[in-house]
TrEMBL record:
<dbReference type="GO" id="GO:0030170">
    <property type="term" value="F:pyridoxal phosphate binding"/>
</dbReference>
<dbReference type="InterPro" id="IPR015424">
    <property type="entry name" value="PyrdxlP-dep_Trfase"/>
</dbReference>
<keyword id="KW-0456">Lyase</keyword>
<dbReference type="GO" id="GO:0008483">
    <property type="term" value="F:transaminase activity"/>
</dbReference>
<dbReference type="InterPro" id="IPR015422">
    <property type="entry name" value="PyrdxlP-dep_Trfase_small"/>
</dbReference>
<dbReference type="InterPro" id="IPR049704">
    <property type="entry name" value="Aminotrans_3_PPA_site"/>
</dbReference>
<dbReference type="GO" id="GO:0005739">
    <property type="term" value="C:mitochondrion"/>
</dbReference>
<dbReference type="GO" id="GO:0050459">
    <property type="term" value="F:ethanolamine-phosphate phospho-lyase activity"/>
</dbReference>
<comment type="function">
    <text>Catalyzes the pyridoxal-phosphate-dependent breakdown of phosphoethanolamine, converting it to ammonia, inorganic phosphate and acetaldehyde.</text>
</comment>
<keyword id="KW-0663">Pyridoxal phosphate</keyword>
<dbReference type="Pfam" id="PF00202">
    <property type="entry name" value="Aminotran_3"/>
</dbReference>
<feature type="region of interest" description="Disordered">
    <location>
        <begin position="455"/>
        <end position="496"/>
    </location>
</feature>
<comment type="subunit">
    <text>Homotetramer.</text>
</comment>
<dbReference type="InterPro" id="IPR005814">
    <property type="entry name" value="Aminotrans_3"/>
</dbReference>
<feature type="compositionally biased region" description="Polar residues">
    <location>
        <begin position="475"/>
        <end position="488"/>
    </location>
</feature>
<keyword id="KW-0496">Mitochondrion</keyword>
<feature type="compositionally biased region" description="Basic and acidic residues">
    <location>
        <begin position="455"/>
        <end position="468"/>
    </location>
</feature>
Length: 496
């Protein structure tokens, strides 16, 4: 079968006509048409190869043959719902449990990260009998109504946004840009105290806390690594208020952080969430996801009297694929690779920080790394336009990277776990070159970085994927969109 059914121009026309305009596309000025992928590489309709630094869904590598085979073989045999007994379902639940703390052993299988988080909220509310949810600033937990309500990343984009009365937003535990920074003697306690205050204020208004929900490492929120001990203290405050702790591992689970299989484990052995949600990498691109919880929470959910049924969740094909993903992680030591290559890449990026004034911070664990660009290392002025410039220039070099965070100035590395040190060398070499050009155009040197934001030589850049225009020191060669207003503060963005 030909990989292309239409030429690229026709695909764009049809997409514009038939696909909802709020479904955004990468590099909207010159989108990429990908027709094939393997490992950490993607290929366009002309057979050109792109190095994929962003697709954490293709966790064990795009189209991994073991995963494809497991899905195809099971599809030939049977696919049906979980109302019939099937060994794949129980075997997968057992294998997943073996990666988790003992008390987390009851699974609900669903089909997307959003479904998993929506169900987690239902479990929490049923178990506690409470309604209020505490979420983090800049968090994203999914696209369904219940989750838009707890996703400031999304609801802040609405000009007429009204915060749901049951939702409370806590500070993001960001020690680089947040309220309490690395120079604070105990940022974990300080951020946890903020949650305690929120609980108290909610109680004063008659609210009752059902759950605190957070990604174990904030992803869309700007690759934020919470200080160690923060989750333990938050869990203590929340449980004292009768609530539960939900860890969203949709982006960061399944060995990505290298030292541990789950990112919440970075906080220490003494921290165990009450509910864990999983998605994206779990099926390497096949739509499946899962909620794992304790016996107590699951029993309380059952006592509501309502059956939980999910047509596709936990079907034999999904579970066969999930099992193959777990097998490949072990067989190819991908968690170990995430640790080794992640350290290698982090070291390379640290050297970029020594060299380039635009690099404000490097942070990450394993193959989940953020590079925050700033125009001023003291004021932390976000280098939003420059981040856009870097990702567009990298795309011209056939390297796919994205920028995120509240200011869209954090370059996010979250590649398939088969990423190699050679891939890291290539990506950093190109970033080095692009940053050098940018800094030359801006007249920016390490010692005068502080003044860079006042530089008058700024030239116009095209608008980004969402139509926002930025300024940096370089002219971009993929066309421009005159007349689009400048935007440097909170901006809409596409997520991957
Ligand atoms: C942290 C997090 N949770 C939940 C979701 C929702 O997952 P899905 O898009 O599969 O519904 C996402 C999606 O990006 C996510 O990043």
């Amino acid at each position: 079968m030909s990989a292309e059914r239409f030429d690229k121009k026709r695909t764009i026309e049809l997409r514009k006509r038939h696909i909802g305009p709020s479904c955004k596309i990468h590099f909207s000025h010159d989108p990429i048409k990908i027709v094939q992928a393997k490992g950490q590489y993607m290929y366009d309709e002309k057979g050109q190869q792109y190095l994929d630094c962003i697709n954490n869904v293709a966790h064990v590598g795009h189209c991994h043959p073991d995963v494809v085979k497991a899905g195809a073989q099971q599809m030939e045999l049977l696919n049906t719902n979980s109302r019939f007994l099937h060994d794949n379902l129980v075997l997968y639940a057992q294998r997943l449990q073996a990666t988790l703390p003992d008390k987390l052993f009851v699974c609900y299988f669903v089909n997307s990260g959003s479904e998993a988080n929506d169900l987690a909220l239902r479990l929490a509310r049923q178990y506690t009998g409470h309604k209020d949810i505490i979420t983090l600033e800049n968090a994203y937990h999914g696209h369904v109504s219940s989750l838009i309500d707890i996703s400031p990343y999304k609801f802040h984009q609405l000009s007429d946004a009204e915060q749901n009365q049951f939702v409370h937003v806590a500070q993001s535990p960001d020690v680089y840009r947040g309220k309490y920074r690395a120079d604070h003697p105990d940022p974990a306690t300080a951020y946890a105290e903020e949650v305690k205050d929120i609980i108290q204020r909610a109680h004063e208004k008659g609210g009752k806390i059902a759950a605190f929900i957070a990604e174990s490492l904030q992803s869309c929120g700007g690759q934020v690594i919470p200080p160690a001990g923060y989750f333990q203290q938050v869990a203590e405050h929340v449980r004292k208020a009768g609530g539960v702790f939900i860890a969203d591992e949709v982006q960061v689970g399944f060995g990505r952080v290298g030292t541990h299989f789950w990112a919440f484990q970075l906080q220490g052995e003494d921290f165990v969430p009450d509910i864990v949600t999983m998605g994206k990498p779990i099926g390497n691109g096949h739509p499946m996801s899962c909620v794992v919880t304790t016996k107590e929470v699951a029993e309380a959910f059952m006592l509501s009297g309502m059956e939980y049924f999910n047509t596709f969740g936990g079907n034999p094909v999904s579970c066969a694929i999930g099992l193959a993903v777990l097998d490949v992680i072990v067989k190819e030591d991908l968690q170990g690779n995430a640790l080794r290559v992640g350290r290698y890449l982090t070291n390379l990026l640290e050297k970029q920080k020594e060299k380039h004034p635009l690099v404000g911070d490097i942070r990450g664990r394993g193959l989940f790394i953020g590079l925050e660009l700033v125009k001023d290392r003291l004021k932390l002025t976000p280098a939003t336009a420059e981040a856009q410039e870097v990702i567009y220039k990298l795309k011209e070099e056939h390297i796919l990277l994205s920028a995120d965070g509240p200011h869209r100035n954090v370059l996010k590395f979250k590649p398939p776990l088969c990423f190699t040190t050679e891939d890291a060398d290539l990506a950093v070499e190109k970033i080095d070159h692009i940053l050098t050009e940018l800094e030359e155009a801006l007249g920016l040197k390490l010692h005068n970085a502080v003044n860079a934001e006042n530089d008058s030589s700024k030239r116009k850049l095209p608008s980004d994927e969402n139509g926002h225009q930025y300024h940096s020191g370089l002219v971009h060669n993929t066309g421009s969109s005159p007349g689009v207003p400048q935007q440097t503060k909170k901006t809409k963005r596409i997520k991957i």
